[in-house]
Design brief:
Elements: H1 2-13, H2 23-30, H3 43-48, H4 52-68, H5 77-80, H6 94-107, H7 111-116, H8 128-131, H9 136-152, H10 157-164, H11 200-206, H12 215-218, H13 240-268, H14 278-285, H15 289-308, H16 314-343, H17 346-375, H18 412-422, H19 446-451
Helix pairs in contact: 1-4
């Protein structure tokens, strides 16, 4: 930028440079007396340096570039002057003249558009980044290497793969029937699966082949219905026997719950044998005093017995070895006789195998039955166990006589929530406990204090 300023300043000093400003203004500006300042110090360079002439020159150059597109001294005479030969009048019909006037009035731009138009003749700066290409040297080197290999007759690796690839098997395309064919089969647009018409090799390489849906996702988590119908005894005006059957069922549920509570109490209760007595307390106090003396005596006896043991003679060792060999021979003979006896037990062995197969079939059938029963039972999906909802039942004296006196019981939202838990759609949950962050502070108001 400094070099450009220097060149333009040198151009201004040339005798052919024409300035837009008058010479009188520049003389008035330069007529003032300069202040004598010591310029040996750096802080006075920018403070007391007179660059007014440079700024005026640069402003004049910018003005000429905006107005004429360059310096006036460099422009040819044809672009700056023209020959005035007077106004030439042409005979024009009045209809054509009116039409031209109308066109001019229509094509005349608005003043706001004229203000916003770009009036500078300076061309926009060149975008260097638009002509740059990333990795240009690398791409140029790759292209040069490819040209050299092509001249030598060597194919690149990508082209070799394309040539060595196995051609796709040609599949016979089925001819589609015309739309106006009345006997064509019915096609379900939403029920049928979409047919793959693309190349199988392409589908395999791109991974666009449809994944087979697992059969487990098509099975329901439970075979229970979404809405279970209550027993006949739960009606507003039930039959006597059906109402008694429902009461018996509710009674059994309560008895089972009470037994479970009693079982837990018995397990947590303290036994009489575990209660402390004076004898057990004294035994705990003297624990370890007598046993230490007995252990010391046992250690002394074992050391003496080890010292008294003598080494076995060669004759005793031979006798032990012969006894061991005889016992092994007896064992082998017993196994051989047992195998012989099994030949006469083929019928009993066959009957045993049949009984074992029968037990296996019964176990398989029982396992399948258990699996079918589990489909209608809630599974353990979380840390909590499913607890069935209490039966909504009324006693005999609470049964209303008509629908007008019937009182609503239960909650539809809670019933649906329990149904989804029972059908293994969501895990059993419990209500979150509210924990107060700060303690409640009780303050006695002034008005209450005055009364008390």
């Amino acid at each position: 930028m400094a070099a450009v300023k220097r060149l333009k300043r040198v151009a201004a000093l040339q005798p052919g440079f024409i300035s837009f400003k008058s010479s009188a203004e520049s003389d008035d500006l330069n007529s003032g007396r300069r202040k004598r300042v010591n310029k040996n110090k750096k802080k006075n360079w920018n403070k007391h340096s007179d660059i007014q002439d440079v700024e005026e020159f640069l402003d004049d150059v910018r003005l000429q570039e905006r107005a004429t597109g360059g310096l006036i001294s460099e422009k040819p005479d044809d672009s700056l002057f023209f020959v005035d030969i007077g106004e030439q009048k042409k005979s024009v019909l009045p209809e054509v003249q009116e039409r031209k006037k109308g066109k001019k009035s229509k094509s005349r731009p608005l003043r706001i558009d004229l203000i916003l138009q770009h009036d500078s003749l300076v061309p926009p700066p060149k975008d260097v980044l638009a002509y740059q290409q990333p990795n240009a040297k690398k791409l140029r080197r790759i292209a040069e290497n490819a040209e050299k290999l092509a001249a030598m007759g060597v194919l690149p690796r990508r082209q070799k793969r394309l040539l060595n690839r196995r051609p796709a098997t040609k599949t016979s395309k089925a001819k589609t029937a015309a739309n106006n064919f009345p006997d064509r089969p019915y096609y379900d647009l939403w029920g049928g699966e979409a047919k793959e018409t693309a190349d199988p090799y392409y589908l395999e390489q791109t991974g666009k082949r449809r994944v087979k849906r697992p059969e487990k996702l098509n099975a329901k988590p439970s075979i229970l219905p979404a809405v279970e119908v209550i027993a006949p005894g739960g009606s507003y005006n039930p039959d006597f026997f059906s109402h008694q059957a429902l009461l018996l069922e509710a009674h059994e549920v309560e008895v089972t719950r009470e037994r479970a509570e009693l079982r837990i109490e018995r397990q947590l209760a303290v036994k009489r044998e575990d209660t402390a007595t004076e004898e057990t307390v004294f035994q705990e106090l003297v624990e370890g005093l007598v046993e230490e003396e007995e252990e010391e005596e046992d250690d002394v006896v074992s050391i003496r017995g080890g010292l008294q043991q003598e080494k076995k003679t060669e004759k005793e060792r031979k006798r032990e070895r012969a006894d061991k060999i005889k016992s092994q021979q007896k064992q082998a003979a017993r196994v051989f006789t047992d195998k012989k006896q099994q030949l006469f037990q083929l019928r009993s062995i066959q009957a045993t195998l049949k009984r074992r197969e029968q037990r296996t079939r019964e176990r398989v059938a029982q396992r399948k039955a258990n699996q079918e029963a589990e489909k209608s039972m809630p599974r353990r999906l979380g840390r909590l166990k499913f607890q069935a909802q209490d039966l909504e039942i009324q006693l005999s004296d609470e049964i209303p006589g008509s629908l007008r006196t019937l009182k609503p019981e239960g909650s539809v939202l809670k019933d649906r929530f329990k149904s989804m838990q029972k059908r293994n759609m969501i895990e059993p949950r419990e209500r979150a406990k509210f924990k107060r962050r700060h303690k409640v502070k009780y303050v006695e108001k002034r008005a209450f204090r005055e009364i008390t």
